[in-house]
Amino acid sequence: MNASTTPELEPLRPTLALPVVELQLADLCERFESLCANAVDSLEIAAGLEAEGFSDQTVRVCFGFPDVFALAEDLYRRVPRDPAEPSAQPDPWRTPVRRHVLRGALFGLPALCYPVAAPMLSGAGAIPLLVVSTVASWALSQGLSFLGHSRLSNGDRDGSRHVLRVGLGGSVCLLLVIVGLTAVLVGRFGPAAGFAAAQGGYLLAATVLLVDRAEWLLLGALAPGVLAGTGFLVLGRPADSRAGALAALGGSLLLTVVMAVVRTNRAAGRRPRWTELRATWPYLLFGGVTAGLLAVPLVAGGTNNAVMAVLPLSLSMGAAEWLLYRYRSATHRLLRRSWLVSDFTARSWWPLLAALAQYLLCTVVLMVVARALGATVGINPQWTSLLAYAAYLALGGALFVALLLQAFCGPASVVAWCGGALATELVAVTIDRTVPALRVQLLVCGGLLLALVIRAGIVLGQTVRHR
Amino acid sequence: MTDIALMTEGTYPHSFGGVSVWCDQLVRGMVGYDYHVVALVGGGDQRVAWELPANVTSVTAIPLWGNESGAGSSSRSGRVAFAPLGHEFLCSLLDTSDTATIRFGAVLRRLFEYAQHQNLSAALHTEDMVRVLTEIWRDRWPAGGTDAPTVHDALVSLQLLAHLTRPLAARPVRAVVSHCVANGLAVLPALGARWAHGTPILLTEHGIYLRERYLGYREGPYRWPAKAVLLGFFRHLCALGYREASQITPGNLYNQRWEERLGADHAIIRTVYNGVDPEHFPPVEAEPDVPTVSWAGRVDPIKDIETLLRAFALVRQRVPEARLRLFGGTPAGGQGYLNRCRALAEQLGIGDATTFEGRVANIRDAYVAGHVVVLSSISEGFPYTVIEAMTCGRPCVATDVGGVAEAVAETGIVVPPRDPAAMADACVRLLEDPALRTRLGTAARARVLTYFTVDQAISTFGELYRTLAGSEALR
User: Fold this and answer.
1) Which ipTM value was assigned to this complex?
2) Is B4 helix (H, G, I), strand (E, B) or coil?
3) How far, in Å, CA of B63 to CA of B70, rounded?
4) Disulfide-capable partner of B255 in A38, A117, A334, B250 (CB 3.0 to 4.6 Å)?
5) What is the mean pLDDT of each run of 10 residues along chain B (475 residues)?
């Protein structure tokens, strides 16, 4: 494959040192400069020459070489390697900002519906019902979202819709059973149980539409409920308009479910396989634990004021998704600029810390805006205490880093950490009921954030995590 | 035992195309043999596209992409134990010495043994391996610079190698002969069967696998260092395939040059031409009303449809009413090339006279549709388009690649590839001379009936199977 293996070249060369042939070869070098400069070996040049119509016969007649391979070897020696950069590939992680603003809105806007339902949710037993439904539906929606996305990432859109439809049916049934059992346990039926089931059902149907990239459809479905909820707040919560607003909420729920079913209807795909279902459990756990972390201060605090504290955090999840794309894009560029693994590992902290800083900044802005808007409609500013800000900011930061880790390493790696934090909070507020739940959350989530950042810094410093 | 393992890549029985037609002819012709098809496919959800005859007793699809199923376990200790083997593997890929193929063969065999028990893909795609590759590279680019390989190049290379070596994890098939219908990756499962059970390898080549990889990677998205690693893998693998094969049967004489260049023993090479079933391609009786040039094949850059379009633009200057009809499907991912071709036709001002007709149910219709059948490829083995058109009695204008000149000989016009003017001259000559068309068409059909019938190919392979199986019994 090189000169030493083709001894026939040596005796031939001197007889070829005719000026005419030399000129012709110089022409060839010029004509095939790009081919030769980019070739990894002489065989690549031979393949290129043959594709341009050179045959052993033409090479013998025109240049005096025994065959195309010999000519290719000569050209490989004459033209120095000077590889061109391949044409720039599009950044696979480029994503339009507006899509994430919309998704953030879709995560956050449902919070505006809660004040309408407030009277149903007072009294004993209502909070446990809401919490159980929230935890269960978050868990199920994470599992559902994983099932849909894992098929989408294999380019199987029909399969994704199929599994979403089957999953939606299954998880709604499961949710109804869980909420029903809880209602029996706390002895509270009627509107509170109905609302708990409805909010869970909405989340699951909305998950289907979000996975299927039907964000605008979901916005349309959500519009009646959100408009009614906002109007209700702006008008100072008039009691006589409550029934109408509730009907609008019901309308939004119905529209969302119908759209989710229609969108996934008649998608022919494989049934969910056992291995797929087994892979969902860490996602279920992650969703449940996250919902638990959000709920602890609300429950332990014993007020529903903090419900509004969750709003900016929900909105910030849109920013979190967008920053995740930006982070991937940044590390991708870093991989292309690093010559050694150690270069990358050392520099990989910067995009991580930058993404976290941007997320925290974004969330603070959303909190301030939500507070200002909340004040105009007379929402008790108690929840906007600095402590609440800090506690939810710490939680938001921890969830953002958890999202990042989950995207690169799967949920199993973060479930243990978040689960540990949730357990610590629960133990703390159970042992001493006088401890302010927000303070517990600030400490625990602050610790969780620190631990996750260190873990992410180490794990995401590995080049193989970035595909 | 009369079991044959048939190893394919990206062709039979999941896709259409020349090699798949050949496989279908082979298994249907070899009624006395049971075939176990080991098919390397893209993703895991590919469906079998061919109706399988009764003597195809099993089809094992090995997906190179998508989710990996049935891979060995991936333990930490297994990955640690892999480090020296992985290092040797990567070094062997960049080895250009005379003994490189032997070295590569030895390391590939150890990789096969590893993959039978452990997850090779996972072991190749570790931080340690990235470090190993970047350090091997650093020794070759001590000064760094803008050409130097990056961590990204290492990741891309290892990821691809992890996919390309997946067939090593498949359980070796038990058969009397492993019949590979291409060199390259399809040889991996055959090497496994050779190492595990001593099964002899019969290697049939239609096009030259390595040459096509070289051409494909020229336009690829990889930087030079990654390209060198990947083409190093293909070069060594193909050379190993030639050395390990007990018999090599290229589809044409021209291919032998590459085979021998890469170390194949001249004595074990025997050319077996593709064959046509004359009953499927009876002679044409009439010609179309309008002067027509027809083309049949996959819409793919290797077919160089651009040259055909440029040639046809020249034809139109001399035969203004001429039409060009292109028959054939566009493979998945090939839409971009089809669009480029359409745009070029518009730009050349032949948009109205050129039609892309898509896949036809009966390929003979494509040959019936033209006064002249054209092949413009830059790389071919022994194309069916040409011998089928010849069987119908249509004269061909075809590029001088692979075995085309052997197929056409004096019964058509062979022109250099990428030469629109020569192709146009040949087309015009035929379009303007009915007597010449008739004379060449008749000669073409006679040539096929004498040399290129499917029965001849089948009986040759029957003989080779018996010889190889016999030599196996004597071992």
Assistant:
1) 0.87
2) strand
3) 11
4) B250
5) 90 88 93 94 83 94 77 69 93 93 97 94 93 93 85 95 96 95 97 96 93 89 95 97 96 90 95 92 94 94 94 96 94 87 95 93 94 92 92 95 91 93 97 96 96 93 92 53
Provide DSSP, A238-269. -GGGHHHHHHHHHHHHHHHHHHHHHHHTT---
The two three-digit tokens of residue A213, written as one number: 């990239």
Distance from C-alpha of B207 to C-alpha of A291, rounded to nearest angstrom: 59
Q: Sign (positive/negative) of CA torsion B130, B132, B134, B136?
A: negative
Sheet holding B372-375, edge to edge: B354-356, B323-327, B292-296, B372-375, B396-399, B413-415
Nearest to A417, CA basis, from A453, A392, A388: A453
CA atoms within 13 A on the CB side of A13: 10
By the CB < 8 Å criterion, does B455 face chain A?
no
Do residues A288 and A234 lie in contact, with contact meaning Cβ atoms separated by under 8 Å?
A: no
CB contact under 8 A, B138 and A340: yes
Is A83's Cβ below 8 Å from some Cβ in B? yes
pLDDT tens column, B3-48: 999 999 999 999 887 889 899 999 999 998 999 999 999 877 778 9
User: Does A466 touch chain B if contact means CB atoms closer than 8 Å?
Assistant: yes
What pTM does this model have? 0.85
How close is the nearest chain B Cα to the Cα of A329, in Å? 13
* pLDDT score at A384: 52
**Look-up: residue for tokens 């978050």?**
A138
| pLDDT tens-digit series, residues B186-201 | 999 999 999 999 999 9
CB contact under 8 A, A40 and B232: yes
Question: Is residue A68's pLDDT more than 90?
Answer: yes
For residue A4, which residues of chain B lie inside 8 Å, CB to CB?
98
